[in-house]
Structure formats: C-alpha cells, structure tokens
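Duplicate of #3305? Posting structure anyway:
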C-alpha cells in the first residue's frame, strides 16, 4: 500500500466556506473516491490555509487517472478550483506530493 501526502493552499478569505463544503461532500464523489482506490483519505486544514491531504492507495498515478475520468470529479474540481492559491489547472492536478522519510507501524 502506497501512503501519499500532498499540500495545497486555500485562500484565507475562503477558509470557512471550504470547511463547510467538506462537511457534506457529495455522496457520488465519496463513492467515486472509494471506487477508484482512495483509501484512508483525510484532509487537514491549518488556519493560514495550508491544506494537507493524506491517502493510501495501491498505485497513486492509476488512482488519480481513474478519478480524473469520472464525471463527478470534473464537477467537483471545477467548483473547488476558486478556493485555492497558486493553482494552474484543477486542484487534483496541482497537488504537491511529499516524500515519505519515516513510517512507524
């Protein structure tokens, strides 16, 4: 299982709305994430807008590709894009992944 951590930056003036939008993620989006291999997926948001994402998957590139091919993802990414700073394209294309340097089971 591959563990993936990524960063994005939410605009400070949109923090409250971003939090609200993630209280009720569309059921079809949740289903698509699960079906395409996003397991143990979490988002963490700091007050300055730093967003940290974590997930586990068998193959992150294949998982991203499968998700990008869903209609619900296209709609979700279009709605979420205005929330982010320094983004060229869709949020799911602008994730800055981090190298894992330590893991304790």
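Output from current build:
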């Amino acid at each position: 299982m591959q563990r993936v951590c990524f960063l994005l930056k939410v605009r400070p003036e949109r923090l409250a709305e971003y939090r609200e939008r993630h209280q009720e993620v569309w059921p079809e989006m949740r289903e698509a994430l699960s079906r395409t291999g996003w397991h143990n997926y979490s988002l963490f948001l700091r007050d300055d807008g730093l967003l940290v994402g974590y997930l586990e998957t068998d193959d992150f590139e294949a998982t991203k590709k499968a998700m990008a091919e869903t209609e619900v993802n296209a709609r979700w990414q279009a709605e979420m894009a205005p929330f982010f700073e320094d983004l060229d394209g869709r949020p799911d294309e602008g994730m800055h992944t981090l190298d894992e340097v330590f893991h304790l089971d």
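Confirmed duplicate; merging threads. Strands lie at 2-9, 39-45, 50-57, 96-97. The longest strand covers residues 2-9.
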